[in-house]
Each structure stands twice: as C-alpha cells, then as structure tokens.
Design goal:
By secondary structure, the protein is α+β, with helices and mostly antiparallel strands. The protein has 14 helices and 26 strands. The strands form seven sheets. Strands 13, 14, 15, 17 and 18 form a five-stranded antiparallel beta sheet that branches. Strands 5-4-7-8 form a four-stranded antiparallel beta sheet, with no helix packed on it. Strands 10, 11, 12 and 16 form a four-stranded antiparallel beta sheet that branches. It is elongated and about 105 Å long. It starts with a helix and ends in a 10-residue tail after the last helix. The relative contact order is 0.07.
Length: about 725
C-alpha cells in the first residue's frame, strides 16, 4: 500500500496532538519545522503588539519584544540612566557619595543597552553622546566636590591647631579645587540640558542640586580666602587686539596690594582657552611684560586672561583680569625626514621633523604620524609633540595592519580651525612581507560530544612570525577534513585554544577508530603578514550512534518528565482515534501518487530534503578553506536559494535579482538584508574577473547561514 502525502499529513497532525497532550515545551526549547512543512509557513515581518501595554516602561528589557518595541526599550534605558544621574546629584548635596558609586556597574550596562537599541531607532532621539559625557563629567564633578570638602575639613583642623602655614596652604588648594568644581559644573548642566531636550526627561532636580552644590563650594572658598589672604589688584593692557603666531599678543600691567604697593617677584600667567599658555615675573615695582604666540588656540577665542598666581605660602590672594583678542590663522611649515628604506611588521619606524613659522619654532603642537592609514604612536599611546624649538621625533613599531609594498609615512597637524593651519608631508617607505609560522595540535576530548553533536576535538596552536614573535588578535580558521568548523582569535601570546565538534560527514556510517585531518589556516588578509596553513592527522573513536526514532525520543521525554502525563492523555486518545479513522477511511486512495512542487531553476524539485542545501553549505565552507572563494560564494548562494525555494514555494524560473525581489517580500528584514548582500556578492563571484578577498567570501557564508537559519543545528545532514 503506497504511503501518500495525505497520510503523511495525517501523521503530522498526530504529532501536533502529541505535543498538545504532553503540554508546553520546557523553557528555552525551540520547536522545529521539517522541510516538508515549511512550504505552508511564511515568516511575517515584525511582530504583533500586546493588547495591553500601559506600563511598558517598567518592563524588564529582556521581556520586551525586540522586533517591535525598540522605542519602548529606548525609553526604558533612558529612564534608568536619567534616574541614576538625578540620584547622584541629590546625593552630593548631603555628602552621600555612594549614591554615585552604586551606579558604577549599572550605568555602563544600561548605556550599552541604550546604544544598541538607538542604532535601530530614529537618530533624532539618540542622545548617546550626551549620556556618555554626563557620566564622565558627573564622575569628575563628584570627585572634585569630595576633594574640596576633605580639604576644607583638613583646613579647619589645621586652623584649630594654630598651624598657620598648613592652613594657608590648604586654603590655597581649596581655591584651586573650587575653580575646577565650577568649571565642571557648567559642563554638567549643559549635559543635563542636552539629555532633556532630546529625550523629554525632567532633569530639573539634577540641575538645581548641582548649582546649589557649586554655589556652596564658591561661598566656602571665598570665606577661606578672606580668613587667610590679603586682597590684590592686577591690571593688563594689550598692544593690539588682532594677534597671530607671527604677530603675538604683547601685554603690560602691574600687580599690587590693595594699598597700591607693587608686589615684586610675583608670577603672572596668561590663560587662553582654559589653559595656561605662558608665565612671566613682576619687577621691583610690580610691573610685568608678557608675550603670547597662539598655536593651538581656537580661532573663535575672543579674550585672554591675565592671572596673578601666588605661591602656596603667600599671604596674598590671587586675582585676574582679561584683554580682548582676535586670532588670525597663519600657515606653518612642516618638515619631516626619516622613515626607513625597508621595514617589516613590528620593525621601528623613526620620523624626525620640525614645525615653524618664519623660522620661529612652534612649541606644544601635536603631530600625527601614520602609514597606510595606521597611526603610529609612542608605547603609552600618545602622539609626538613639538618641543620649545618646534622639533619633534617619533619612534614606533610598524603595526601588522599595514600591507606590504611601497607605502608612505604621512605626517600632519591633526587640528582644525586653530591659530596654526593644518599641514602635512609624506615620506616614502617600503614594507616587506613577513612569513608566518602556524602550529596545530589536536586531541579528542569526548566520544559522544553533546546530545546533538559528534565527537569533540580540542585544537590548540600558536601563530608567530618566522622569527618566533607572537602575532596577536588575528583570526585562524579551524577545519576537520578540510571543512571549516570555527574561527578563533589569537591571544596576547599568539595562541589559540578551541573545542571543535567533528562534522558527521567525517564519521558517518563508521564505528571504532576513524582517521581525520585537523587543519588550521591563517589568511593574512589586509596585512603585511603572509598566509600559512598547517594540518595534522588524528584518529578518533566513534561509538555506534543509531538514530533514535520519533517514538523513542517521545518515550524518553516522558521518562524524564513524568508529570507531563495526566489529563492530556484524553486528548491524545481522541487525536489518535481521529488519525486512524482518517488514514484507513475513504478519504484517500492507496494508489494516490506522491506530488512534487514546482521545478527549481536547476531542475530539482521541492521534494528534496534539508540535507541538499545543508550539504551545499558544508561544501561552501570546504571551498572557502581550500581557497576557492568565488566557488564558495556561488555554492553558498545555491544552498540559500534552494532552502528559500522550498520554504516559500518559489517555483518557476527567476534571475538572481528577480528571486531576491520575490523572496524579500516573504522574509523578515534581517534575513532580507542578508539575502540582498549575498545576492550582490554572488553576482561579483559569478561575473567579475577579479578574485574575491577572503573576508568578503567569509561574509557571504555568514549571510547564507543567517538566511537559511544554519548554524543553530537546523539541519543535520541525515
């Protein structure tokens, strides 16, 4: 008696009734759909909103539907971040610093969540940078306020102990800290405003408490100054308002006590753009003369501050005044020499140079040095900076991200709209390729693997240069019998360590001891390091693994979960009775032939099993590992097209672009985007005369797995 599709459909319904009788699957289980049932299922875009959603902002973010409630998640995270900011500001008013410290773990986690969800939302509501700056400034603000209060407490102790010198020194420190508190307070209130304007959150309490704390700090510092110091005056007069590096600011003035007595041998500084740019000393009558050449100052700077900077033990208080300025930009001359005729990975690249205007060296300017887009810096991560004479020198090691061949060392000033204009020069350099050495060692760690995998092999090794130097943070592809199974990243020692499940194709139909080849491959893409590949042979033990029947799996489930058997058995009995009646009744003919779906572009039918497209994906991985990039992309595309054709019922003849249009309307946005990228890469692989980069081919396989759902044990190849 022929087994028809209709009777197969009846058995499917029997399975559904079995599931209903047993109950809801355990948490975390994902129901699977066979390839034969897939034609009746069309994935829907997005998701349905819950009927009652009045308290969505109070939900745990993991419980919110990720496909349809991005804005709710954004609100949830912004609400938590805002509450943390307000709690910290309110805690500072009463000296409760733990209110800020307690959020050190939560705030970064919530900020990461906010960053992730705002990538999918309207950019107009994105206040990621404002939240980041707020946290940085609030942490700095809390630290300065705490230091100020501790300093005032120490000052009071010194004063009570009649330690005049220590009290005066602490009062001076409190004044400096108060200036920093007020400066950070201004930045912080601007951050609050940016968050409020972008999210609609009410940060008025945080703004109010921050201003209250800053006012108290200012008042306290002023009282300490009155107690310990005598007032002073300072005057300043600029020779010309319009200044530049070539025509510097020249200021004259005088520092005196309140009674008019000039203060000799006192330090006067000029502060521009919040930074001290130079100092001078008063003469016997308290007069001073100061010259300032702008270099890094922004062009919109409109005034310079002249400050009397008293010593810590001085009985006089500091004072300041300003003069108006208008900075004009000038073109500097940047020179650079050095480099090397030939250098390889991790070799030293040394650059010497100078920066000057009209023969006068420009001091304190940062200099950016890069090769092939990779910036070179000192070991501590800092850039080169010009000395007092305008000279600079940088010695740094060549990073691996620089390709071999003729390259250029680019030296530039990395600042815009400053007193000195941007400039850059280039030095030729030759980068030699560096051979690499790759090792691999494999040992079997498990015979059965997990309940769904085959034997497990531990693969270890190390990637180095031919000279033995460790190559860090590089990807190494691991394969069994030339089928790529995973990719690992080398650590700081160049080592890698991974557990690899042996694919079924390596031991299918075998028991006992089976030889397999374990390989490791480093592609050396976008680097001066050369590619390398290594293989080793391993004999693995394979036990007899008969495929369990559906009934056996079901009975095993009931044995482990006996509490699922009970009243639902009634539903099971009724369902089985109905199924038997349908199967052996008059609803179908024994001679009914098995039907097939519409023919695909390659002449195959939709009756093919998941093993067809799954085997194609395995073949694509094999092609990628052996270096056939174009072939890997084409095979991955064929597997994806076959899977979607069967799942979505897309019969008929389509070009690859027509197939994309037809399939994109039936899958979700994520799979549709992946299919679009894969189609473009397939066209390149099929019609371009140029070879594909390995990274591009690897991306195509990732997209194919994203579309088919492979990579989550959806197909087994059985």
């Amino acid at each position: 008696m022929a087994f028809t599709h209709r009777r197969a459909g009846v058995l499917v319904w029997v399975g559904v009734l079995l599931v209903a009788a047993v109950g809801v699957p355990v948490a975390g289980a994902v129901p699977s759909v066979s390839s034969g049932d897939a034609n009746g299922i069309v994935p829907q875009r997005g998701g349905t909103s819950p009927a009652n959603n009045t308290s969505i902002q109070q939900e745990d973010p993991e419980a919110v539907d990720a496909s349809g409630n991005v804005s709710e998640l954004q609100n949830w995270f912004s609400g938590r971040l805002t509450r943390t900011v307000v709690n910290c500001s309110e805690g500072l008013t009463v000296g409760e610093y733990d209110a800020c410290n307690r959020s050190d773990g939560d705030y970064p986690e919530w900020l990461d969540g906010y960053v992730n969800v705002t990538r999918e939302s309207d950019s107009g509501n994105n206040r990621t940078e404002a939240f980041e700056r707020t946290r940085e400034n609030q942490t700095e603000y809390a630290s300065k306020v705490r230091r100020f209060r501790n300093t005032v407490e120490a000052y009071n102790d010194a004063r009570n102990e009649s330690d005049t010198q220590r009290a005066r020194r602490l009062a001076r420190r409190a004044q400096t800290l108060a200036t920093g508190v007020n400066r950070t307070s201004g930045n912080l209130t601007r951050n609050y405003g940016a968050i409020a304007n972008g999210t609609g959150r009410d940060l008025t309490p945080a703004t109010r408490t921050t201003r209250t704390v800053s006012h108290n700090v200012t008042t306290t510092a002023a009282s300490l100054s009155i107690e310990q110091f005598r007032n002073t005056t300072i005057t300043a007069r600029g020779a010309d308002r319009v200044i530049s590096f070539s025509d510097p600011l020249r200021v004259t003035g005088r520092v005196a006590a309140v009674n008019g007595t000039g203060l000799a041998d006192r330090t006067v500084g000029v502060r521009v753009d919040g930074r001290l740019r130079g100092t001078t000393t008063t003469n016997a009558t308290g007069a001073y003369r100061l010259t300032y050449r702008p270099t890094r100052a922004p062009l919109d700077t409109d005034r310079a501050t002249l400050q009397y900077l008293p010593r810590n033990r001085s009985v006089y208080s500091g004072n300041e005044t300003t003069v108006p300025i208008d900075i004009r930009q000038v073109e500097p001359t940047l020179r650079a020499t050095g480099g090397s005729n030939a250098v390889s990975y991790d070799g030293l690249v040394t650059v010497d140079g100078s920066l000057a205007v009209g023969g006068i060296g420009a001091a304190g300017m940062p200099v950016a040095v890069s090769v092939d887009g990779e910036e070179l810096r000192f070991e501590d991560g800092t850039r080169a900076r010009t000395a007092s004479n305008g000279g600079f020198r940088l010695s740094a090691r060549l990073p691996k991200g620089v390709n071999d061949g003729r390259r250029s060392v680019r030296v530039s000033l990395p600042l815009d709209d400053r007193a000195l204009a941007r400039d850059n020069v280039s030095i030729p350099i030759t980068v030699r390729s560096t051979p690499t050495a790759l090792s691999v060692d494999a040992t079997q760690t498990s015979v059965n693997g997990s309940n769904v995998s085959g034997p497990v092999v531990r693969v270890t090794g190390r990637l180095t240069t031919d000279g033995g130097q460790a190559v860090r943070n590089e990807s190494v592809a691991l394969a069994v019998n030339d089928t790529t199974t995973t990719t690992v990243t080398t650590d700081g020692n160049g080592s890698y360590d991974a557990n690899v499940s042996v694919p079924e194709s390596a031991f299918a139909g075998s028991t006992g001891t089976v030889p397999v080849t374990v390989g490791a491959r480093y592609a050396g893409v976008d680097t001066s390091l050369e590619a390398s590949i290594v293989r080793t042979t391993l004999r693995i033990d394979v036990p007899a693994q008969p495929t369990p029947t559906v009934l056996a799996e079901f009975l095993a489930f009931l044995a482990e979960h006996p509490w699922y058997v009970g009243v639902p058995v009634v539903v099971l009995v009724l369902g089985l009775g109905y199924a038997v009646a349908r199967m052996w009744g008059g609803s179908g003919s024994e001679e009914e032939a098995t039907t097939t779906g519409p023919a695909a572009e390659d002449g195959s039918s939709t009756g093919e099993t998941a093993a067809d497209w799954g085997s194609l994906l395995d073949a694509a991985n094999h092609q990628l590992f052996t270096g056939d990039r174009a072939g890997a992309v084409a095979t991955a595309y064929a597997a994806t097209r076959r899977k979607l054709r069967d799942d979505l019922g897309l019969g008929g003849s389509y070009t690859h672009w027509e197939f994309l249009d037809a399939a994109r309307n039936a899958v979700d946005d994520r799979r549709g985007a992946a299919l679009g990228r894969l189609t473009e890469l397939y066209e390149r692989a099929a019609f371009s005369p140029y070879d594909l980069p390995e990274g591009t081919a690897s991306t195509a396989l990732d997209d194919a797995e994203a579309v088919t759902g492979d990579g989550s044990d959806e197909h087994t190849g059985e």
